[in-house]
Structures are given as C-alpha cells and as structure tokens.
Amino acid sequence: MDLFSCAAASSATIIPSIDKGAFLKLQNGSDIRGVAIDGVEGEPVSLPERVTEAIAAAFAAWLLDRKKPDASRRLKVSIGHDSRISAQKLQDAVSRGLDAAGVDVIQYGLASTPAMFNSTLTKNKDIFCPVDGSIMITASHLPYNRNGFKFFTNAGGLGKVDIKDILERAADIYKNFTEEGLRDPQSVKRVDYMAVYTSDLVAAVRKASGDIEKPLEGFHIVVDAGNGAGGFFAGKVLEPLGAITSGSQFLEPDGTFPNHIPNPEDKEAMEAITRAVLDNKADLGIIFDTDVDRSAAVDSSGRELNRNRLIALMSAIVLEEHPGTTIVTDSVTSDGLTTFIEKKLGGRHHRFKRGYKNVIDEAIRLNSVGEESHLAIETSGHGALKENNWLDDGAYLMVKLLNKLASAKASGLGAGSKVLTDLVEGLEEPGFAVELRLKIDQNHADLKGGSFRAYGEAVLQHLSNIVDSDPKLEKAPVNYEGIRVSAFGGWFLLRLSLHDPVLPLNIEGPNKEDAVKLGLAVLSAAREFPALDTSALDKFVQV
Ligand SMILES: O=P(O)(O)OC[C@H]1O[C@H](O)[C@H](O)[C@@H](O)[C@@H]1O
C-alpha cells in the first residue's frame, strides 16, 4: 500500500497524487530516507519508484543550476548502493530520473558512501571521473524496509537547505509525470569504482609504512561488515597489505541483515566483533556500518575502541601529526575525553553539536577563521580528516589505525594492537554511562497545536531555569546544543534529537547512584510536561 492517496482514476491515468508535504517528510537532516518496500506493518511505502525518479530528476536539475555546463557538455552522475534488498529497484529508478533530466548515468553497483563522494574528486578520464555529482542509495543502519539517498558534489555532501530544495523540485516534477512512465536510459555506463577507491586506501597504508608492499604481514585482522557494503575491506584492502583476515564475518552483502545490525553503536554488533577477535586470537577487529561511513575497532584483548575511545585514539594519532590542533566532536562526548585531548595530548577539544555534517562543517569553518583543525569526529563512528578532503569515511579512519600498526612494525616495535591501546592510555572513563531517549507525543493536547520542536525547546528552557536556581548544578560554560550540566562528579546533556520527536538524555557519573541524582534533576523539570514520555527516566531513577 502507498502512503499517498490515489487520485480519482480518470480514464487510464492512475498516478497517485502526492503533495509537497509528503515529499518534504522524506527529509532526514542532510539525507533523504523513506520506506522503500512493504513488509512491516504500519509502515507504508513512502519511497516508491516514481517518487525516486522525481527525486533523481530534481537532483539533476539542481546540479545543472549549480554547474551551468555549456551546451556541448553533459553532466555525469555516479550512482552506488549498499546491500539493501530494494537497492536494485531504486538504482533503476534513479537512473531513469537522471536520464530523463539529460544527465549521463554511471552505475557503480555495490559501493560505500565515502567512495561515492570520492568519485567527484578522482581525476581519471578512463572511468569518467571526476563525476559532477554522485548519489548513494542507503539508509545506513535502519531496518531492511527503509532506503534513501545521500548526494555529493566535489564540494562535499549536500546540506539540509539543498535537500529541501531538491524535494520541493521533486514534488513539482512529479506533478507532471504521466502514466506512460520514463524510459530506461539508452546507455548506462558501469564502472568498478570500488577497485579504484580501495587501491587508494591500500596506497595510503603503503606510503605511511615507507613504501613497503605488505606492511601488515604478520597481523591478523578480522572484519565484521554486518552484511552491509563493507566486506571489501578484508579482501581488497587488508589482504593486499599482507594481513591475515580469517575469521572475518558477515562480509557477504545481505539486505535482510540476518546476523546483527551493521552499526558500531549497537551493543550486539560490538559484542559480535569482540567475540570474533577473541575466538580467532586476532590482533585487531574492525566493524563498519552498512554504507561504511562509520566504523569502530576492537583491540586484541577484546577492548572496544568505539565512541569516546575511538575519538581519543584518532585524536592521539592526529595530534602527533599536527601538535596543538583542534579536535571537533559531537555534543555527547565525555568530560574525560576533553581532559585527555587537552591535558594529555595538548590539543583543544571543541565539543560542538550532534550530526556528522555539523561537526565537519564546523571544522571547515574553524580553519576558515584561522583555527587549525584536522579532525571532525562523532561518537557514532562518523569521522573526517582534513588530509582526506573532509570525506566522512569510516574506512579511512581504520586506514589511520592500520598506518599506525604498519609503521610500528616497520620501526621494529613489533606486531599486535598494543601500539593503539597505548595511545588511549590515561583516558578517564566514567564508572557509569547511559543514554535515555524521551519521546514527545506529537498528538498530545499539551502541544496546543505547536511543533514538537517548540515543545522540546520549552522543556529545555524550563530545565535551564531549574538548573540556574540550584547551586549544586553547574551549567557548561560553553555549550552549543541542549542543556549540559556538571554535578555529583558527572554530567548530563538533554537536547533535541536531530530528526525525531525525542529528547535524548545522556548521563555519565562515577557510579549509578550519582548518575541517578543527575537523572532526578532532569526529571523534576520533565515531569511538568505531560506530552513528554518520561517512563525510561522514571525507571532509571528507581534504584
Ligand atoms: O539526534 P539523534 O536522534 O541522536 O541522531 C543523531 C545522529 O543522526 C544521524 O544518524 C546522523 O547520521 C548522525 O551523524 C547523528 O549523530
């Protein structure tokens, strides 16, 4: 069943009528996300093929406006996809939409999100690069029935404003669609771009090791791709570098994700890669999300190198290369991380907002106003380096770790992941950490017809007032998102979710008891908002 109401069937024309509002609802920050296939009750299809055609044609129109090519040149757009079961269907629809808008289509097949951005930068006429624009068909770690798009030009990923513009254009294009349908493109070019992208990663590690052909010889590294698109990393990156990859798991693409969610923030996923490392007595484990823009690692003792630890590790590597530089992170990073970056590593920690695009854009902005920054990274496992064109690339983060292993071995420091573990030595970790997500009921009368955002802002304002009147609670002096407060040896941050009608609450404390005290401070404010579902917090504070 389609989400959209059907227009009255006059003569033979049955194009479901879809208004602009329904198109705009497909926006998810700087991505487009929707339900691509039937199968989950209560989740009707919101991204059918014809809507996809319209979105692709709208991207082409947007790109033509930006690039203004002269009449003799046709623009080229590359398309790639992750392992989702709707990938082929959407790739065909995207190709028809681009072709109808007069743009050349180059299909890469199974690919990673960072590879797609990279194709706008690669200079190689034989493979039609650089392309003018690129589309990745993915819904990251979301369930199997979802899908969506990320768009790139050589200036980076498109932002919120551009996505809204594209969806508005798509709604107009869709209105003019006829029952006849768009033709299949006359000529689609197919390129094995992942071969190019992976050989760049291999070259980067070889270079860092002082041009050794197999700098990872003697290392045993297991990869867990969670049946997403990241399986290439074992056979196309690690093995040519000499590493043993036996025991790697879930490398085959399978859009039903039968083993675990491909998501380095997911507990089960991290447990799966940790088990693989320990069972195989491997030196290192590497895990990716579905489209490989996020990653995490596990050391040989089974210690997870994700979230704050991964940021600490990457900061140590980047600050060795660029002493004193600023590390930009998302807002839910720990106080211990700030101390580590500033006191141990001698850098500056700029704790900004949640959202990978927000941290990357902030790092670029800092550089433009004279503050040097080389790393923008989120606890989610998204990370981008200046040296890599600010490409949001989970595989490149792992390449930086491999460089470290390879150069340690080359300089006689031996194999194993100790060189990485040693780099995070001294990072203070909280005794207790939790994230609770408090939902706002958008249909509740207390919203009085207003938006969930306005309601969430009112909760935050009320909490802010309570904090101001309590001497035990100390507001963070610099804060870019929500209300962050230190007390009882720990901290909490209550903020609005980037996309959902939710107020995520992060609490870290020396122990659960102190974390509960922080939770109670939030609860005293939250209780007064009947549309806010505080049940998770109620449960948490009942020790
Ligand atoms: O605000 P939240 O609901 O916690 O979501 C925040 C997250 O949203 C998306 O997944 C983005 O890709 C991440 O970069 C961001 O961190």
UniProtKB/TrEMBL annotation:
<dbReference type="GO" id="GO:0004615">
    <property type="term" value="F:phosphomannomutase activity"/>
</dbReference>
<comment type="subunit">
    <text>Monomer.</text>
</comment>
<dbReference type="InterPro" id="IPR005841">
    <property type="entry name" value="Alpha-D-phosphohexomutase_SF"/>
</dbReference>
<keyword id="KW-0597">Phosphoprotein</keyword>
<keyword id="KW-0313">Glucose metabolism</keyword>
<dbReference type="Pfam" id="PF02879">
    <property type="entry name" value="PGM_PMM_II"/>
</dbReference>
<dbReference type="GO" id="GO:0006006">
    <property type="term" value="P:glucose metabolic process"/>
</dbReference>
<dbReference type="Pfam" id="PF02878">
    <property type="entry name" value="PGM_PMM_I"/>
</dbReference>
<dbReference type="InterPro" id="IPR005844">
    <property type="entry name" value="A-D-PHexomutase_a/b/a-I"/>
</dbReference>
<feature type="domain" description="Alpha-D-phosphohexomutase alpha/beta/alpha">
    <location>
        <begin position="201"/>
        <end position="302"/>
    </location>
</feature>
<keyword id="KW-0119">Carbohydrate metabolism</keyword>
<dbReference type="InterPro" id="IPR005846">
    <property type="entry name" value="A-D-PHexomutase_a/b/a-III"/>
</dbReference>
<feature type="domain" description="Alpha-D-phosphohexomutase alpha/beta/alpha">
    <location>
        <begin position="307"/>
        <end position="409"/>
    </location>
</feature>
<protein>
    <recommendedName>
        <fullName>phosphoglucomutase (alpha-D-glucose-1,6-bisphosphate-dependent)</fullName>
        <ecNumber>5.4.2.2</ecNumber>
    </recommendedName>
</protein>
<dbReference type="InterPro" id="IPR016055">
    <property type="entry name" value="A-D-PHexomutase_a/b/a-I/II/III"/>
</dbReference>
<comment type="similarity">
    <text>Belongs to the phosphohexose mutase family.</text>
</comment>
<dbReference type="Pfam" id="PF02880">
    <property type="entry name" value="PGM_PMM_III"/>
</dbReference>
<dbReference type="InterPro" id="IPR005845">
    <property type="entry name" value="A-D-PHexomutase_a/b/a-II"/>
</dbReference>
<feature type="domain" description="Alpha-D-phosphohexomutase alpha/beta/alpha">
    <location>
        <begin position="29"/>
        <end position="170"/>
    </location>
</feature>
<dbReference type="GO" id="GO:0004614">
    <property type="term" value="F:phosphoglucomutase activity"/>
</dbReference>
<dbReference type="InterPro" id="IPR050060">
    <property type="entry name" value="Phosphoglucosamine_mutase"/>
</dbReference>
